[in-house]
Design a protein that fits this description.
Blueprint: E1 3-12, E2 16-25, E3 30-34, H1 46-58, E4 83-86, H2 89-95, E5 102-104, E6 117-118, E7 129-130, H3 133-145
Parallel strand pairs: 1-4, 4-5
Antiparallel strand pairs: 1-2, 2-3, 6-7
């Protein structure tokens, strides 16, 4: 069975915008993307600016204005997956726009928890603990294949 595991970090402005996307295929091949945002930070309402600032400082450490490629849904067409596994309702909802069979593993009792890890990913601030889609998707993949 062909499947992919997908993990993302992003911002809600108010719709979810992926900033970092990591995919592992059923064969173990890893794809990683960093996207630029459609709306400039200063143009967002204050409540979204505050949430984004909190996420940057306390959760994933990725700057809203950091450089990346433009998000193109065509990225997903190269993956011939029967099933897409992810963790989180907002991510599953986003992925359902592009895949017919998305499984949110979040509510399974034995689904592993993600923990902030010491991460030296080039997209995160150095010497700090962050939630990283690169690390998280590997945890998800190990869970799915076992």
């Amino acid at each position: 069975m062909k499947f992919i595991c997908v993990e993302m970090q992003g911002f809600s402005t108010p719709d979810f915008e992926p900033k970092e996307l990591t995919i592992i295929t059923s064969t173990g091949q890893v794809y990683h993307y960093l996207f630029k945002n459609d709306v400039l930070f200063w143009m967002l309402p204050t409540k979204y600016q505050q949430t984004i600032s909190w996420l940057e400082r306390h959760y994933h450490g990725i700057k809203y204005g950091s450089k990346g490629i433009e998000f193109n849904p065509g990225i997903f067409t190269e993956f011939e997956a029967e099933t897409v596994y992810t963790k989180g309702a907002e991510k599953a909802k986003f992925l359902l726009k592009y895949f017919p069979n998305v499984v949110n593993l979040e509510h399974l009792d034995d689904c592993p928890k993600y923990e902030k890890t010491w991460n030296y990913c080039t997209y995160h601030k150095e010497d700090s603990k962050w939630n990283c889609s690169c690390v998280n998707v590997k945890i998800l993949f190990k869970y799915v294949i076992n």
